[in-house]
Amino acid sequence: PLIPRPEQPIQAPLRSGDGDGDVPAVTFLLLRRPRSTNARTGSSYFSYVTSPISHAMDGQSRKHRILMVSDFFFPNFGGVESHIYYLSQCLLKLGHKVVVMTHAYGKRSGVRYVTGGLKVYYVPWRPFLMQNTLPTLFMTFPIIRTILIRERISVVHGHQAFSTLCHEALMHARTMGYKVVFTDHSLYGFADVGSIHMNKVLQFTLADIDQAICVSHTSKENTVLRSGISPDKVFMVPNAVDTAMFTPSSNRLSCDEIIIVVISRLVYRKGADLLVEVIPEVCRLFPKVRFIVGGDGPKRVRLEEMREKFSLQDRVEMLGAVPHAQVRSVLISGHIFLNSSLTEAFCIAILEAASCGLLTVSTRVGGVPEMT
Fold this sequence. Notes:
Layout (H helix, E strand, L loop, with lengths): L9 E4 L11 H7 L4 E2 L6 E5 L3 H6 L7 E5 L9 H15 L3 E7 L6 E5 L3 E6 L3 E3 L2 E2 L7 H10 L4 E5 L4 H12 L3 E6 L8 H13 L5 E4 L2 H11 L6 E3 L21 E6 L8 H14 L3 E6 L5 H10 L6 E5 L6 H5 L4 E4 L8 H8 L3 E4 L10
Parallel strand pairs: 4-5, 4-10, 5-7, 10-11, 11-12, 12-13, 14-15, 14-17, 15-16, 17-18
Antiparallel strand pairs: 1-3, 2-3, 6-7, 8-9
């Protein structure tokens, strides 16, 4: 009786010009369906998904109980992790109940509470490749079902196409009659072996979802082509940053030395190999330029070897992994932010750097041009 059953969506008017409609703004973006117009009055309506549980929780404001699912969450650092965390915090402030489900990170296992009362289930599974759990198809069903019923979930929101935990949660939630939403954060190709298999999984998982969200128009086009989902079900909601956290420095930096800041995961997709080629050449052409590189990953060894090879220890500073709370202090120590990604649906780091007052230089890939 605690499992919501599919039902006809309720039509609810949303008044234009204010945010006092029946559905809070953030939830509306996540759950809205295509707009329809009343032929008699000319007014616009939006349909939104709901469930018997949401009615029982609050008969007036209809608050939702949302389960965020992804293999990528704190203490791991990245754009997906930040997106899930800040989206959850905003939904909590709107009065919704939010629960996060991810896999265990080292000794961090079980149920934890983070800022704002956000409840996180660190399921005791270990990742086997790039922070992803081993695909089991049905082995995850008991724990997912337990969380859905215990937390009285009404909406399941999966993040990142590469997350196996996300795909399994969406599949099981749909078979149990829950409303599901999927957010894609990355771009994938069509020709390599990995992308071909991932696209097949995506077609199977997204065949019966309610809504999908992409972070840029380029990402939306990519997701529609890869998954075969109807474009009417896919909405573009760009990422955002908290400008209260990322503010320019009150002290103006000296221009006697130009400091270029790089903060990124040091992996192939983020263009770490490109940095290895670019940094020595820039240092040779411009003697007054210095680099600060923050981040960690398998390509960090190559950057350190480059620094040793060209004797750039005094001009290339390697910080290693930078906690998110310290990102601003690193950004405001430089003049220019450099992003060398080979593929990017939407680069949150560029927004953070621009918010801190840095000039940004980036490769022209994916959804990056949409940010200008």
